[in-house]
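Notes on consecutive records. When two proteins share a document, each keeps its own sequence and its own token line. Never mix them. Below: protein one.
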Amino acid sequence: MAAGNTSSVTEFILAGLTDKPGLQLPLFFLFLGFYVVTVVGNLGLITLIGLNSHLHTPMYLFLFNLSFIDFSYTSAIIPKMLMSFVSKKNIISYTGCMTQLFFFCFFVISEAFILSAMAYDRYVAICKPLLYTVTMSPQVCLFLLLGVYGMGTWGALAQTGNILFLTFCADNLVNHYMCDILPLLELSCNSSYMNLLVVFIGAVITIGVPIVTIFLSYGFILSSIFHISSTEGRSKAFSTCSSHILAVSFFFGSGTFAYLKPPSVIPLDQGKVCTLFYTIVVPMLNPLIYSLRNKDVKLAMKKTLGRITFS
């Protein structure tokens, strides 16, 4: 790269999580372990849902897609991140960086909207149980999934396009373990208020709209639960929602902290920790949350293991 030529950036160097040599190898094995658990957990959940017909319902269709999304965007991030722990310079090409950014945005935004679709599904199941099969018909589920991935595509194109219009000068060291929006904006020599505004509006839409949908759904759900006379009925209704509430809290809590506050409020090093949580920790926890707290998934696991044992 020729210094001073603002149009000649062909690659970036990812700084990674830390520059302390003594932490590189322990962190490599730690995050490799996280990745293995994430892959096994999410692919295992996808396999269980696919093989067991009693899980072929709207709720598990959305859970199937949640696991697919979690597996996909961790696979777009962690393998490259692991390279930073074992190489002196973790270099990524300009094209590779923009590609990683696009898929990161696509899957993260899709996750936000799949979580809101799951909340709507629970609302219909608890508040309108007699109309559930009609309201959550295959056509409606398909429409919701098209909306989920459509919003993911729109958001990814908007945010990636916003970065593509920037000019990068002599410095090509990205202060992150991946190509994320805010570190790239900081690195650019011509980013402006309008670029930050695009990021903020995108975050408001992709975080705000799902959160409003989820809060409304659970507001109606709580109102309906409090009208259930039996303690057993209330307990069952709460148990069907508890896993989803945990997943939503982890994902949106860290995402809101990372993107809905200006960079001047949160230093980039703290932003790394927030991003780390919802890009690596949450996808690893989701299969555990939905399997350990779900009787249907446990039953499917026993049946599948039984078929493998006796085959």
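Protein two starts on the next line and is unrelated to protein one.
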Amino acid sequence: MSTADPDSDPAREAVASAYQRFEPRAYLRNNYAPPRGNLSSPDGVGPWKLRCLAQTFATGEVFGRTLIDIGSGPTIYQLLSACAHFEDITMTDFLEVNRQELGLWLREEPGAFDWSTYSQHVCLIEDKGESWQEKEHQLRSRVKRVLPIDVHQPQPLGAGDLAPLPADALVSAFCLEAVSPDLTSFQRALDHITTLLRPEGHLLLIGALEESWYLAGEARLAVVPVCEREVREALVRSGYRVRDLRTYTMPAHLRTGVDDVKGIFFAWAQKVRV
């Protein structure tokens, strides 16, 4: 939990307070176990997200030494394709319970969430002849640190030299819209994380479309609803060239009552050199 700064506001503080009730296992169950976690149907949300990431990395344009995952939450799937292209990966989250959940998986401890179906699916679509065990080993070996982050601070990782900066690439999934009380706050958070990225570096951003709330156990979290146009405009305002922006409409059978999400967006954006 970060301490309040002079320019903090009540709306942001309310978001931070609500997240103290966030339950990682409930969130994982709601979104990454069946039915949403069923990867056997190609038109499911899980395969769509994994395909967007794999296809972007398959272009050969997104690579480097350092990558930061912004607001990892308790999930690792968003890095399964990335880990072949970056040797130094930093995972981050505002909540200690999520950082602890990530630690269980990274250390292969008993009780860690089982991501093997996701790893298997990524190996299948990448088709490099890699086993899912090799994929997971590579990711674990390349995640060098799991750090606290607050995207509402001008220095989201704090003032220390905890991660190598600027990063060659950023990944962020379901973070900015889920922690921002309004669109202005969303834009400012995007500006803040962009300072962590080198000029001409790449941002891969995944998020919810037209969602206003979601459940994570006892916690009911507010989300700022965004549409495709607002995502595109925010990226441009933060100094990016949008390379790709795709959307997915959540089918009726995956609208399970754990949120009111209408769809998902995937954006590949490149920071413009000023």
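For the record: The beta strands are 66-70, 88-93, 143-148, 167-173, 197-209, 213-216, 219-222, 240-249, 263-271.
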